[in-house]
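Provenance and format

Records in this collection were gathered into a single text stream. Each protein contributes a sequence line and a token line. The two records reproduced below are adjacent in the stream.
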Amino acid sequence: MTVDWYQYLVLAEYLYDNRDTFPDLEACLRAAISKAYYAAFCSARNYARDFDRLVLDETA
């Protein structure tokens, strides 16, 4: 299964933009930060793997 990490960023932006509609503001913001982090980290990792030919160890 391939994950579209850009969609994680879209979700993070949605959560942030609609933070006032959730009953627990802190939980909403933590979820938004988490989604944005994984979008950035995994996009950078995949770019390094696909374009910079970085070899990633499965245990790393």
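Adjacent record:
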Amino acid sequence: MSAEQEPTFDLAIVGAGPAGMAAAAMAAELKLSTVVLDEQPEPGGQIYRGIERMAASRPRHLEVLGPDYAAGLELTRAFRASAIEYRNGTQVWQAEPAGRIFFRRNGAAGIVRAKKILIAPGAMERPLPVPGWTLPGVLTCGAGQTVLKAHGLAPKGRFVLAGCGPLLLLLAAQLTRCGIKPAAILQTTFNRWAAAPHLPSFLGTPGYLIKGLGLLRELKAAGIPLYANVSQIAIQGETQARAVEFVCNGTTRTIEADTVFLHQGVIPNGNLAWSMNLDHRWDDVQRCYHPKLDAWGRSSNAAVLVAGDAGGIVGAKGAELMGHIAAAAAAVDLGRLGAEQASERTRDARRALNKQRAARPFLDHLYRPEQRWIAPPDADTIVCRCEEVRAGEIRKLVSEQNCPGPNQLKSFVRCGMGPCQGRLCGLTAIELIAETRGVPVSEVGYYRIRPPIKPVTIGDLATLDVPERNDAVHM
């Protein structure tokens, strides 16, 4: 379909995770013409990845992955039943607040037009750059979950999980239920005293504490060694990960491992929001930027809303509730729903969201990454995997060449200019710059993200039908 023939939707949603699916279902209920663009072949996002196929072909694995994963079936079915247009396998590489979204699908580029845009790409894992983290055999916990959910695959041989955050323990438990036990879990961060003041509000959120204690009991019963307060992690090997060296309680230890899973919490997947020039703020507890939003998910641009973890980490259930609320806000802005009606329809969702958010301060302080993991002390540790820029190079450029920020860093060493467009190095780079300059991270800023935010070929662009000259794609 050419750009001239493409209809203009009331709402375009980018992402079909919990937030995107919930927003689509609500939008359909409110009679908004809605299109959902999602990169994956099936709805669900990372948290509910592959849930439809698993329920149909591997239902016993639902028990392995746990009730929180199985809960996504109801949401996914509601999404499928909604009167919306769902375009899977669609990679969005540019979006404009004026209402155009450029995408790549089936080897061709296209354009969708919409009156309102809802960004819901979810979260991504924070990098944990340690010596050897670029070796084959080293993955993130999220990657481990992806192959487990989508294909039912688990690692062969000995494997170790290292880092911090709930996903670290959850993946260890899920693999253990498959009969494949980790050789060890190396926990880097557990700030119990910083988290303690926030315990009362955390206890008021149903289920969180029970789930956490349950995972710990499960892993202990399985006899899996858990090393706490680990430091100086280094992955050994020349062409493949072979072992993990670390320090625990002043003693250096080495554990043989064919596979190493790293995890240091999750952060908003923000490149699309940055590329649209939305206002952001620095969260010093979560140690990341996220868009400035009002209580309805409206951003600094009147045409753009953000829902789910892309707007600040809230978890799967919180993301679903945010999607519900944001869709109602879009209906209000389009004149399809009154403000009082929207408040009434979202009252229960907002109450439930407030309960989910009440747990975040405790979790955010408990697993707040320490400086040594955020700004790697080892000079040879690679920070930018795409351009192979090392921590020592960045510190030297800042201290000796007066490089003030991440965008100037691009000019010196192309850090952040590879295929990932800074997703894997952005936070580490700005933390290194701030530490070397001795200033807050908020003063350093972030990369200027320009489209395309995902690789697109000249051949794809050649298929793009843009009739007017002033409709030219901005590269």
